[in-house]
Design a protein that fits this description.
The chain has about 110 residues and is mainly α. It contains six helices and no strands. Helix 2 runs antiparallel to helix 3, helix 2 crosses helix 4 and helix 3 runs antiparallel to helix 4. The longest helix is centred in the middle third of the chain and has 16 residues. It starts with 6 loop residues before the first helix and ends with a helix. The relative contact order is 0.11.
Amino acid sequence: RARTRGERAFADFLYQVVGTSVQSQESVVSALLIADRYHERPFEGLTVAASLGGDTDTLAALAGAVLGACRGAAAVPPEAGAIVESVNALDLEPLANRLLALRRRAE
């Protein structure tokens, strides 16, 4: 039923029914529903996860991990990724490439 809801109704469903707390029975289910719904629009899914309320950093991290594992670096617009890397003094591309290579070997 979550797939057929409009954007606002989907967010309300996650927050009010599934839950968005740190408890795994809520956060994991919400993150997977976000990843499923936004698999073609991963960055939009991350923004939804970060704005739902509740334990948003956990939701966005879980959904982002799933979406990133499925979509690779293309899940995040280059300009957004550059901001995250700059602010946090990170170099994520080599790590992402190694993780994607592991996934390809497992396929």
